[in-house]
Amino acid sequence: MKSFSLFIVIVTLFLLGSCGSSENNHTKAKLPEVKSTERTAVFAGGCFWGIQEGFSQLKGVVKATSGYAGGTTENPTYEEVGAERTGHAEAVQVIYDPSMITFKQLTHAFFVMHNPTELNRQGPDVGTSYRSIAFYDNAEEKKIVEAEIKNLNETKYIGLDVVTEVEPLPTFYPAENYHQNYVRLHPNDAYVQGVCGPKIEKLRTAMPELLK
């Protein structure tokens, strides 16, 4: 019975595919300007499609952009990141209004959406480019992230320890245009429905008071 269940899981993941696209347009998106009243946060939690859409649905989030962070190569491409040649993770930059939503709330949303106990993978996506990272811009943000992780570990979240990396905010590079708002533009995509959809629904269920 266990072998049959494992077979079903493998077949399901194969049919869903993975986070990626074969489009040939490599034009990068442009990062929006950040107003003096706004702040930015960057998180990486597996495929950026679902994470971007999840953050976009929260009150106070002005703009969420898919991109790459945490690596060494300047202005990497999707192909380079996916080939694990740059050290980057698929990430999302969130521009937000701190008078409407806090960094603490964004951090909680991040941990709600993905599985922070998986090392170098999220569901069907395997590799360091899919690792979990929470970036911080100052000591206070670092404390907030570490407190969230401590709480998850103390409450035995999913029964496993959190493996999320906590790193200083790096240079964020926007991904190609075709990756932006992918979930909204491709609602019938099998991967979107099978992988991104559940992530977003977890967030909507956990934080309904913050939904737009």
UniProtKB/TrEMBL annotation:
Signal sequence range: 1-23
Domain of life of the source: Bacteria
EC number: 1.8.4.11
Keywords: Oxidoreductase, Signal
Chain ranges of the Peptide methionine sulphoxide reductase MsrA domain: 40-191
Catalytic activity annotation: [thioredoxin]-disulfide + L-methionine + H2O = L-methionine (S)-S-oxide + [thioredoxin]-dithiol; L-methionyl-[protein] + [thioredoxin]-disulfide + H2O = L-methionyl-(S)-S-oxide-[protein] + [thioredoxin]-dithiol
InterPro entries, sorted: Met_Sox_Rdtase_MsrA_dom, Met_Sox_Rdtase_MsrA_sf
GO MF term set: L-methionine:thioredoxin-disulfide S-oxidoreductase activity; peptide-methionine (S)-S-oxide reductase activity
Enzyme class: oxidoreductase
Active site (record annotation): 47
NCBIfam families, A to Z: msrA
Record-stated family: Belongs to the MsrA Met sulfoxide reductase family.
PANTHER family: PEPTIDE METHIONINE SULFOXIDE REDUCTASE, PEPTIDE METHIONINE SULFOXIDE REDUCTASE MSRA 2
Protein function: Has an important function as a repair enzyme for proteins that have been inactivated by oxidation. Catalyzes the reversible oxidation-reduction of methionine sulfoxide in proteins to methionine.
Record HAMAP family: MsrA
Protein name: Peptide methionine sulfoxide reductase MsrA
Source organism: Pedobacter insulae
Encoding gene per record: msrA
